[in-house]
Amino acid sequence: MQLSDLVQADDVILGVRAPDVAGAAADILGRALPHHGFAPDAVCRLIDAVIAREREMPTTCGASAIPHARDAAVDRFVAAIGTNRDGIIEGQREPRVIIAFLSPLEKHAGHLELLAALSRLAHDTAAMNAIAEAKTVDEVIALLKR
Q: Is the pTM of this model over 0.90?
């Protein structure tokens, strides 16, 4: 499974700014999840799960962060990306890219595979810089397909 298979234009948010990774993940997912058919109450609950997981064990990897959660109400993998070339967290240069995702509870192996792939991507400095510097959503999508 590739990130480019999961992310559509509505899942990419440019210019994200928040006080912390959890807040950024909440913003990104709050905008993206409704486009995937999640009702407002489900969006709130899923965001709460990602925030709780992020507070339990932070996911910052240098220039990026990968907040995530698994949930029984999720029937497919869902991902969203937030970027800010000047840094997503107020007053900090990094992370510049946040990839938030949700996995079906029963797809533990797939969850770990996606997390490993995203971790490799997060450590690819050239790729993270290109995504952070992208000026359009289409440019981010094109970079993910490479």
A: yes
